[in-house]
Amino acid sequence: MDRKELINHFSKEVTDIAYWQTMTEKRYAHRTLVAFNTDWNAFVCYCQNIQASPLPAKVQTVERFIASMAPTRKLASLKRYIITIRLVHRTLALTDPCSHTQIRLLMQGYHEEKQDDSKQAEGLHADHISRLLLAFESSPNIKDIRDLAIWTVAFDGLLKRSELSNICVDDVKIDDDGFVTIQLDNKQLNLSEVTSTAFTRWLSEGLIADGYVFRRIDRHGNIGEKPLDHSSIYRVFRRAGDELGVSSKVIFSGQSPRVGAAQDLANEGATLNEIQSQGRWKSPAMPAQYIGQNSKRDKEMDKFKKDTPWDND
């Protein structure tokens, strides 16, 4: 598919993720492309409503779109819209309206206005895990047992929320010494001794013999069959912050174990490539951000405006 065909497809609502895969040369994960698609379609719908062209978009069109979304969206969402609009224009070798001073000043204003809602997830580190183990490894409470398993497994494996919620009993192997191996797609995750102990205790105490491993527990202590959703996982990690007594300015979320584990690995001397491999990131951009290598992150994020097949057309 050539550049002109892609421009035609992206000038209206995109209904097939395959177009994104073609345009970005499959450099992004499927979930990321779905998010891009949602944001782009929101912009396209807005343009259709005001009878403006989304591609190429005028600076004033982007400005009006962001202003229309700002009252009901957080700063992170507004930034994501800008990233998506910029990505489509630059990758298709069109003038990027988001690079205009007018848009930069607009976003700077929203950053100052909405900065309190843009707190990033803090890292959950090895010392946090040690303190949680000390507090809960002997607890008879079923929720404590489950949450401790979640905290340790997510940290040990640098797990994404989706990976955590999708673990099934069929993915788990326990050797004769009690060490646990979890199959994640085409990769194996070998858990440490303390994490294996917390994990197998949850399987035993929760009577988890098949289906999803990590499940909801109601107020009466009854364990359901459906997996934890992202909101439930978020609450589990917010609880970790509460139990640790961290500052109210520190926000633990489902991303926190990946952030903290990446930072701990960097402090132990691991290279960015090693961290990327261990965390199964397709690009080094996010782990680079987590460990403070912002220049590397920016370089990786900038790749999509370079070296596309039609740059020399």
TrEMBL record:
Entry superkingdom: Bacteria
Sequence intervals crossing the membrane: none
Domain Tyr recombinase intervals: 119-303
GO MF entry, a single one: DNA binding
Start and end residues of each Core-binding (CB) domain: 1-93
Region spans: Disordered: 275-313
GO annotation (BP), single: DNA integration
Biased composition (Basic and acidic residues): 295-313
Protein name as catalogued: Integrase
